[in-house]
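Q: I'm teaching a short session on how sequence maps to structure, and I want students to see two examples side by side rather than one. Could you give me a first protein with its sequence written out and its structure tokens following it? Keep the formatting plain so it prints cleanly on a handout.
A: Of course. Example one:
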Amino acid sequence: MAGSKGRRRFGNVRRLPSGRFQARYVGPDGLERKAPRTFETERQAGKWLTVVESEIIKGEWSAPEAGEIKLEAYGRKWIAERKLQPRSRENYEDLFRLHIRPHLGGLALGAIKPQTIRTWRRTLLDGGTSEPQAVKAYSLLRAILNTAMKEDELIRQNPCRIPGYDRYHTPERPVATVAQVLALAELMPARFSALVIVAAFSGLRWGELAALRRGDVDLTAGTVRVPRKLAALRSRMEFGPPKSEAGNRVVTLPAAARLVLADHLDEFVGEGPEALVFTGDKGAVLRSGNFRRAVGWAAALRAAGMPEGFHFHDLRHTGNNLAAATGASTRDLMHRMGHASMRAALIYQHANSERDREIADAMDRRITKQTKRATAKAKQKPTKGKKATRPARKTASDGTAGATGTPMARKIKES
């Protein structure tokens, strides 16, 4: 075609029996394609070919039929082929099934535009979907379409490029005081007291605590190893690796947690190294729902004076704040808490076990100090002219109820 007199440099145009003009070209993949429509004039057909040629030169061309693949089929395949932990896979499947497929699944990839995304998000929010869920669904859709654009080259641009749609305001989670943590532990059945203490002062997540085995605990060194977690899937409980590489760590415990954990191991845990440290009444693995019912979680929170909306996971924040108050660096804190991010990935390699021991010792000093302060406050003499009364073990406004004068508080005070 190119170089011949009277012939176009790229593609060709021919007149059809109807009198309209058809444009054709050979794509980078060697296949001949026709314009999706015919044109009234030869000049219009030539302009269309010029646009296509420009896209090929700039590397922006994609096979027109590729954009006709439906999102439902592509999204399902994307999730199935992705390397994901079982819990993450189920979460992705649920987000796609509940929030993406019903509204966008029937659309071709190439037909999804930014305006489509804006309308979809508004529909979700107006239909009662919470903003956090809408953000998670948007982020998943963006990841799917990123693959369609960058790896499979099915679409030219990702329509999920709307500022602000991938973020939502997260209220600051409540933080329990040391006195409140001790009060909550005292209100637990005996086999679950250590679970609360270790959760608060180690920074381990629920799934990491539930997967902890006797062989992971070194009482001499005062450390716990976190090589696995327990995930609650739709139909089963499954042990697997931690949430990320950073989650596979060794954490040093302050003495307050070490002493309680030692007693717990003696009383409730089997002798073998594979024996689970924290189990239910009948020795079964811990399930969060069963645990809350067994301990009367909501009532115990109220009795301990816990902040409104407190979750088990929030116990981590108590230990995190204590560790931060010791002057621990961001790198130290991220190692201790098992946090993972692109920036932290390299830093974790240099986490220092000696520094972790210093953090745990400093945490222990603060725990003891706050426990003594709470005890002293409870023993203060009544004001002059008022009859002395025995302090009642009920919720106080400062969250110290149940934490003073108890065996656990005395043990920590004396340690």
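Q: Perfect. Now a second example for contrast.
A: Example two:
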Amino acid sequence: MPTESAEALSPPDLWGQPVFARIHGEIDPFEDLSCFRPLDRAYTGDNTFWTVPSPEPRLSDDFWRDVAGHLDDERIQAAAQTLAAAVTRWEPRGDRLVFAAILRAGVPVADWLCRLIPGARAAALSLFVGLGIDGVALGALRRRYPERKVVFVDGWTGRGGVARTIAALNQGPLAVLVDPWGWADFSGAGEDIFCPTACFTGVATLGFSRTFFVDETRLFGAFRFPARYRREALVAAWQACCPAPGRADAARPEPPSRFFRETPLRIHANEVCRALINAAPRKLLFRDGAPRVARRYPLLLRLAERREVPVQCGVDSLGELRTRVACTLAAG
């Protein structure tokens, strides 16, 4: 199979992780809209869906200040400690680990894991449920780090699609911060905790678009975004919130019980956040009453208001799906 060289794009003043992707020309995410697929286009199993990236929203300075104000979350910090402890029980030596951060939610988590596990390294690559891993990128990562064990890192699990995709390809293990349905090999929390990095966009925190599929012989592609849109202070603020190694009690948690139920809903707080950013939600649903929702999910409510998505609270049936948050989609 022909291969091509991987390209390290991520600027050292941001994440410092090599990104295994082919970076195409620069476009403006808010002007060059023809380069993106429609928000309401659904994945139907046709891989041409992945040949065009999803669009990037324009979010206000006030919104990003709100996100920054939620980064120092003790529940997320404790989950990171627990996750790091689980990984190091599997491989105690950080210099034998490389984290394959799944773009884009895995990048902030892999950043923290490298800070929590001295000697570990991280690099970013693409994975799409239904399409699979960027095999050219994975090969390049293994060649760069031949003596290290690869651990895939994502932010969270939703319905377990990423975990099943990795397992079907005989890859893994998978490590995530939040794993409500118990599909990851290593997780920091089984509770559906909202992680503010779910709000991070490629425009604000990466400098390039969501990646897109070219063909099986070439790296996934991405469009470069203008540097003026990057929120470097936001990235630095997340990095500064990483807990010190060994600070928290990272006792071995009970193994999660794997759960699955078919549903057309997008479920769990972080997956719903992504839908509010780059899909077409029709209604936002919460299991809790309005006062508790306002306290626990202010960023989701802000995004829903921006997208003009109606909100319904007190949806008790969400308990059957083991989630406190869900949304219906206009398509798919």
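Q: What should students look for in example two?
A: Point them to this: The longest helix spans residues 74-90. Also worth mentioning: The mean pLDDT is 92.
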